[in-house]
Amino acid sequence: MKRALVILAPGFEEIEAVVPIDLLRRAKIEVVVAGLLPGVITGSRKIRIIPDYDLEDVLEEQFDCVILPGGAEGAENLKKDIRVKELLEKQLSTGRWIAAICAAPSCLVQFGLLPYSKLSCHPSIWEEIPQDRLDKYSAVVVDGHLITAQAAGRAVEFAFEIIRRLLGEEAVEEVNRSFLSSLGPRMEPEIA
Length: 192
Prior knowledge:
This protein is of the alpha/beta class. The radius of gyration is 16 Å and the shape is globular. It has one domain: Class I glutamine amidotransferase (GATase) domain (Rossmann fold). The protein has helices spanning about 15-25, 70-80, 80-95, 105-110, 155-165, 170-180; strands spanning about 5-10, 30-35, 40, 50, 55, 65-70, 95-100, 140-145, 145-150. Helix 1 packs parallel to helix 5, helix 2 runs parallel beside helix 4 (about 105-110) and helix 5 (about 155-165) packs across helix 6 (about 170-180). Strands 5-2-1-6-7-9-8 form a 7-stranded mixed sheet, with helices on both faces. A two-stranded antiparallel ribbon has the order 3-4. This is Peptidase. It comes from Methylacidiphilum caldifontis.
C-alpha cells in the first residue's frame, strides 16, 4: 500500500490539507497526518484539526509522498522547522515524491532543494521564486518527483495528480466515479 504524509503547521490552509487527505484515502492510499506541534493545529481560517501524530513520531518512517499544504503562515512555519528540510532531503535522496501547494513551494526554494525544477505556486509568493523556475500559468506542475499547485482552488487537481503519480490514471478514475469532480476524468457515475 502506498503511503503519504501530510504535514500540518500552524496557519496551514485547510482546503489544501483536507482535500488531499480525503481524496488520497478514497484512493486507498494510507495517509498519515502529522503536526509540527503536538496536539491540535489551527489553520488559517481557525479550523482546528487533530493530526494523527506529532511529526517527531514519524520522522524515521518511509512515505511515497510528503505533502506540504500552504497558507502564508503555514508555509512560514514549515520553513522554520529543520525537521521538514531533513525529511524532504530524505524524500529526494530516495527518489520519492514531494507535493507542495500555494505558498508551500517557497519552502523548497528556501531549503535549496530541487534548484532547477519548474513549479507553480500562489501569486503572492511569485517574487520569492526564481523566475526561471516559475510557471505562472499552470494550475499543477509536475517536474521530476515534484508536484506543485497554485492554491486552494486547485486542491482537487493537486490531489488527483498525486493519486495519478502514485497509483495511475485508473485510480483517479475510480475515485472520481463517486466524487464526480469536473476536474477529474469525464465519466458517468455508477448507479447501484
